[in-house]
Amino acid sequence: MKRVVVTGLGAVTPLGNNLEEIWDSAVNGRSGIGYLTRFDATNFSAKTAAEVKDFDLSNYMKVNERHRMDRFTQYAVASAIMAVKNANVTIGKDVLPENIGVCFGTAIGGIESFEESYQNLITGGYQNLYPFSTTMVISNMASSQVAITLGAKGYNNCVVLSCASSSNAIGDGYRAIQRGDAEMMIVGGAEASITPLGVGAFCAMGAISTNPDPESACRPFDANRDGLVMGEGAGALLLETLDSAIKRNADIYGEIIGYATNSDAYHITSPAPGGEGSIKVMELALKDASLRKEEIDYINAHGTSTKNNDKMETAAIKKLFGENAYHIPISSTKSMTGHMMGAAGAIEAIFSLMTIRNGVIPPTIHLENQDPECDLDYVPNIARKKDVKTVLSNALGFGGHNSALIFRAV
């Protein structure tokens, strides 16, 4: 099996629109959550969202190109361009087009375009539909448009596994390189579901925060948490073989050494009792990495700020790691980014790698009154300096999907 490293990162998030801005915001505990402005939310129970702000799309595509893409695809393409540039890779020079692939995840896909198309259909019939209505909606367009834009002709896939989508996309790209199906992979996830239907559905489910204060709406592991806050954006990673990275004298952020995915096979929204699936997926990732439990230096938690998830994830970590669970720093960066759904795993993988590189663990902000059932070290409110060599990143999704990634310094 070939060793796989990460040499490029790119992201569009509520914390900023490039890697430097995003990391600076994270380590300084700045929240990307504000009042919901994408649409009139007067009649919605949710009043806050983590929206992408001041993003100049003209830096990444022409006007006629953007008009053929839903917002989630635009974010995907921009983040992928950033990651390839950050890796200093020229396709056709550093890698043959047929040897570089793409795998992007999304939970919901082009929901904004779907809603607009439906309104056009109702008001003017099918003749009123935009010719690209279909291709703007379907989920594979992130992977497709990234490949088209960058000329990546190799292995190509799309992962739709709810909020575990982009973690699985990273894992899929990792496996493709290990097997020898690709030399490089552009992987990640994208989401843009802050729409009336996207937010309204979570309001109806009762899973979204109704706290109107952006400064306290998202508070993972806090006793007063009342639900997730919807986020949006995209994250991309450039993966390649270690041999390729060394040959190019590339700047390596870290190595992927473990990946696992499984299913609770229990319920469409609730996690399995005791976190059974989460425990098993972390065990499998550790086995894949040939690591002992004591070798994990930091856990980037799924940490959604919902009652069920935070308690379940805490219980799963305690069950697996035993007494040592109390000595592992854990944080939920969703406290700052909101829940970016299908893009969450990719952004959290980026935070994991930046933690390894910089020796700073991002905090869980707004953690003021810790839930007694969530009694681990969640790095509350202030970033922590620590030499981190190995990170476990969890991602859990509706339908009982679980995934875990392990990154290590090279």
Automatic annotation (TrEMBL):
Question: In its UniProt record, which GO terms are filed under biological process?
Answer: fatty acid elongation
Any single GO molecular-function term of the entry would be: 3-oxoacyl-[acyl-carrier-protein] synthase activity
This protein's UniProt keywords: Acyltransferase, Fatty acid biosynthesis, Fatty acid metabolism, Lipid biosynthesis, Lipid metabolism, Transferase
Q: Does the keyword Lipid biosynthesis apply?
A: yes
Domain Ketosynthase family 3 (KS3) as annotated: residue spans: 1-409
Q: What is one Pfam family matched by this protein?
A: Ketoacyl-synt_C
EC number(s) on file: 2.3.1.179
Q: Which Gene3D superfamilies does this chain map to?
A: 3.40.47.10
Active-site residues, Swiss-Prot/TrEMBL: 163 (for beta-ketoacyl synthase activity)
The superkingdom of the source organism is Bacteria
Keyword Nucleotidyltransferase appears in the UniProt entry: no
Q: PROSITE patterns from the entry?
A: KS3_2 (PS52004)
Cite the InterPro entries for this sequence.
3-oxoacyl-ACP_synth-2, Beta-ketoacyl_synthase, Ketoacyl_synth_C, Ketoacyl_synth_N, PKS_Beta-ketoAc_synthase_dom, Thiolase-like
- Pathway per the UniProt entry: Lipid metabolism; fatty acid biosynthesis
Reaction catalyzed: (9Z)-hexadecenoyl-[ACP] + malonyl-[ACP] + H(+) = 3-oxo-(11Z)-octadecenoyl-[ACP] + holo-[ACP] + CO2; a fatty acyl-[ACP] + malonyl-[ACP] + H(+) = a 3-oxoacyl-[ACP] + holo-[ACP] + CO2
What is a single cellular component term in the Gene Ontology annotation?
A: cytosol
Please report which protein family the annotation says this sequence is part of. Answer: Belongs to the thiolase-like superfamily. Beta-ketoacyl-ACP synthases family.
Which function does this protein serve?
Involved in the type II fatty acid elongation cycle. Catalyzes the elongation of a wide range of acyl-ACP by the addition of two carbons from malonyl-ACP to an acyl acceptor. Can efficiently catalyze the conversion of palmitoleoyl-ACP (cis-hexadec-9-enoyl-ACP) to cis-vaccenoyl-ACP (cis-octadec-11-enoyl-ACP), an essential step in the thermal regulation of fatty acid composition.
**What is the protein name stated in its UniProt record?**
3-oxoacyl-[acyl-carrier-protein] synthase 2
Q: Which organism is it from?
A: Heyndrickxia shackletonii
